[in-house]
Amino acid sequence: MQSLMDNISFQIIVANASHKEYSIQITDEMENSAKARGTGIAKRSPAYVEIKMEEGKAVIALTSDGKWAGFCYIEAWGHGKYVANSGLIVSPEYRKYGLARKIKNEVFKLSRLKYPESTIFGLTTGAAVMKINSELGYIPVSYSDLTDDNEFWKGCQSCVNYEILMSKNRQNCLCTAMLYDPNSKRNHTQELALRDDFKKDLKLFDRWVRLKKYVMLKLNKSKDTISSIFL
Predict the structure, then answer these.
(1) Which of 17, 167, 197, 215 has the fewest Cβ atoms surrounding its Cβ within 10 A?
(2) Which residues form the N-acetyltransferase domain (predicted)?
């Protein structure tokens, strides 16, 4: 897939072993981006990213002169019943070119190709990612609708909000859960993917994310305060 914007050409393709040279750059940017947002994502090593490339379970975006521009990979859980498109990241230099949406579209297609019967889900604190997901047919769901595979939830241990997740018995956190069910007709009708007012204004996504963060952090802080009184 080719994209041309402001005289910068991007190639968005399925990654392979020849792209392993970018693994450190990718994982470093994943970590830096999470720190900048004040949230956490499952921390991955360069070796893990390289495995995804070798397996053909990742999408990478490169400029015409070979610079890394973006990345996302596929993870399967519950013996392939659930699939997640994880680690979506775009190099800071190329974040105003609509690459996140294009990469997300391509990794979604790849997921459907490799796992046509699997439910695709995601957890995110990013309003932009929430909107992209809704355009693909994801709908907001409760955490109980996600995989119960412990290996998936172990990936949250590196998140700064892990304590909140565990205090809620893995039933809620700052992230919003979204899911695409290939066997559900509702996912094939965009009007049912998300409320109309959300579609019209990305700022409403931002307000939702900020409100949830405020409420969750306040509740968690209140819980700590109450506990300290009795300790």
Answers:
(1) 197
(2) 46-109
